[in-house]
Structures are given as C-alpha cells and as structure tokens.
Amino acid sequence: MDKKDKIKPKSANQTPDPQITDPAIPDGIQVTLDLQHPLFATVEYENGDRYVGEYSASDLDNRLMRNGVGKYVTFDGHLYSGHWKNNKLSGPICLHVWPLMNVHYKGEMLDGQYHGEGEYSDGKIHYFGRFCNGTMCGPGVLTDCLGGRWTAVQNRNNTLRFWLRS
Q: Which residues contact 32 (CB under 8 A, 6 or more apart)?
C-alpha cells in the first residue's frame, strides 16, 4: 500500500483550532483567526495593543504582517485604521487618531506617513490639502485657532508659503 493511501483526508466538518500555536508568533501575543474569513484575525499584543483585520505571513521570517484592511489600537488610545501594506498604513482612505494630543488625520498615507490629499487637525490648526512624506506641502488651506484662513502654496525651493485669505 502506498503512503498516500494511508493518509485519511480531514472531514469537511472539522474546523481547525482558532488559536494559532506557531513558533513565529512571540510569547505574549494572542492570535484568533476568523474561520469564516481565512485571512482575517484579531491580534492582541502583550503590551495591550490590538489589531483586527487582514494579514499575511512575511516571506522572510513567516511572521504575521498587517496587510489589507484593518484597525490597530494602541494601549494608550492611538487609532490607526485603513489599508495596510507590510505593517504600515498605505492607501487612499486612512485614519490616525491620537486622543492624548487631540490629533486627527484622515486621508492618503504611504508607508505609514501622511502622503497625498488629507485633512489634519490638532485643536490649534486645521489643514486640508496635500502632504508629502508626513509634512504639509500644499496646495492647501490652513485654518488657525482664531479662525484665520491661510492659503498654502509650495515654492520652487520646496518650502511652503502661507497667505492670509481675506
């Protein structure tokens, strides 16, 4: 009898244990798979952070990577939500909320940085416009804490200039 004949196929009714036991997952991290959506998981980190969303395994070391749509909340309340690529927010509709500093950002991100069209506020200013590598780069409109509206334009030397709008 051939070796493959000795192996019985698993029953279609059998479901794998939703708790992963894998040497690639460090101690203190709990992963719960959503069996209805095979690439979706809840990851609870030892420090209290939590990720709920799509994931994949890294090609290099077989570690879980945030890839796809998901939400990451840190133990101190930071919220990162949107499309993930290689553990960093990268996509057209991303959200970063940092309640301790009253920071809110909604817009495009690339490799974990504000990049593209976005809207930023921190309780002192509100900016709607273009971001480049995590900084405002214009064109855009900035509203200050007194209600003044400023037009932001990038100069030839890549500096951002603001003009008070009347």
A: 18, 19, 41, 42, 44
